[in-house]
Write a structure and sequence with these properties.
The protein folds into two domains: about 190 residues, no CATH class; about 160 residues, L,D-transpeptidase catalytic domain-like. The protein is built from twelve helices and eight strands. Strands 3-2-1-8-4-5-6-7 form an eight-stranded mixed β-sheet, with helices on both faces. A hairpin with a 2-residue loop joins β2 and β3. The N and C termini lie far apart (about 95 Å).
Length: about 400
């Protein structure tokens, strides 16, 4: 019993000595851990989270489209910050330096915020620009159709105008989908096509209508001939599609007329489907089986003036050497179709040809002109067009980078 008590006592004494040492070790370890915690390099997790969120917010604000340069810079800085973080993680634990990747992340965040802001401004600007351009182009399309209604337009210019219409339709669809950049680009390109076609056709027609004073003189001379001789004379106005009969210098009758499908301008050669312009006379009258168009009054085309102009055009190389001048131009029946369809003749309805046969015949003067009046349509064509408004629209709505 005594031995057991002695051993137990020794254990107790030993335990009393160990416990303080144990607690001291624990305390020291705690102090060391605390010191290590205080000096442990903190990873830039908050900076990366904020930068990533800012970049994603900018992406949702369509910054890649409307502020691409700023957004690209933000993404590049964030990728560089992530790379620098990974490099820092390769160092020993307490030697890691996170200041540089954290700074990069903060700068990336600022760029992303600016990209989102600029995207919103650019988006609104492009929206306003696209809407303004759409209004302009819609008006120009209506003006084009009204301005050149009834005039033959070259296939190239018609194709350019049609291309403009298609682009405008695509732009309107993009506008409905809030794709303002695509809408703006398509609508403004449509405007360029339409304005270009308009300018080319207008220039051609303006040159054509400069002949109005000459045509007016021809018409006055023809009407005066009718007054002095007390006989019938015919004046044909191609723009107004009118065949007018004068007697004793006064208007006696007027009929609707149709011409060659490419009637604009003087006839230059056979097969051009244009109706000649000049002062002619009737040299033959056809009826029955002698004409396929009910009745016909044959004109003396080509006359001396036509032959001279044809020879000059060939000499200048404006016509092919094998080109012919053509002939057999008539005022004939079969008209009343509502569009220009002949090979170059003047077509009236059969009932109007019956009336004309009673008023005119062999020897009757026939003067064919482009136009005698500056109608609202011709005045609009002769008016100097201005593209200042579209130039202003084209300068607006630029992306802010």
């Amino acid at each position: 019993m005594k031995k057991l008590r002695t051993r137990s006592g020794r254990v107790k004494k030993r335990s009393k000595k160990i416990l303080p040492v144990f607690f001291l070790i624990i305390a020291v370890l705690g102090c060391v851990a605390g010191c290590l915690y205080l000096f442990y390099p903190e990873p830039p997790l908050i900076q990366f989270t904020e930068a990533s969120y800012a970049v994603e917010t900018a992406r949702k604000a369509d910054a890649p489209v409307y502020a691409p340069a700023q957004f690209t810079q933000a993404e590049r800085l964030l990728r560089r910050a992530r790379f620098e973080w990974q490099l820092a993680n390769m160092d020993l634990l307490y030697l890691r330096e996170y200041q540089y990747p954290g700074d990069l992340a903060r700068v990336a965040k600022l760029h992303a915020l600016k990209a989102a802001e600029r995207s919103e401004v650019s988006r609104k600007s492009l929206q306003q620009s696209a809407v303004a351009a759409a209004t302009y182009v819609r008006t120009r399309i209506d003006e084009f159709s009204r301005k050149f209604e009834g005039f033959p337009v070259s296939a190239r210019m018609r194709a350019k105008f049609t291309r403009g219409q298609m682009l405008f339709f695509e732009g309107e669809q993009a506008l409905k989908k809030n794709d303002f950049l695509n809408a703006s680009e398509k609508i403004k390109t449509a405007a360029v096509h339409i304005d270009s076609a308009d300018a080319a056709i207008t220039e051609n027609l303006q040159g054509y209508f400069t002949l109005i004073p000459l045509w007016e003189r021809w018409a006055k001379e023809t009407i005066e001939w009718s007054r002095q001789n007390g006989k019938s004379a015919i004046v044909i106005d191609k723009v107004e599609h009118a065949c007018r009969v004068y007697k004793n210098g006064a208007l006696l009758a007027e009929y609707d007329a149709e011409f060659g499908s490419q009637w604009l301008g003087d006839k230059r050669q056979a097969g051009d489907r244009s109706t000649p312009e000049g002062k002619y006379r009737i040299i033959n009258a056809k009826t029955g089986y002698t004409t396929k168009y009910y009745k016909a009054l044959v004109l003396n085309y080509p006359n001396e003036v036509d032959l001279q102009q044809f020879r000059i055009a060939k000499k200048k190389g404006q016509l092919r050497s094998a080109a012919g001048i053509g002939g057999n131009i008539e005022i004939h029946g079969g008209g009343g179709r509502g569009f220009n369809w002949t090979e170059g003749c003047i077509a009236l309805s059969n009932s109007d040809m019956d009336r004309l046969f009673h008023l005119a015949g062999v020897g009757t003067p026939v003067t064919i002109v482009g136009s005698l009046n500056h109608t609202q349509q011709t005045r609009e064509i002769m008016k100097k067009s201005s593209t200042a408004k579209m130039d202003e629209i084209l300068k607006s709505g630029v992306r802010i980078n």
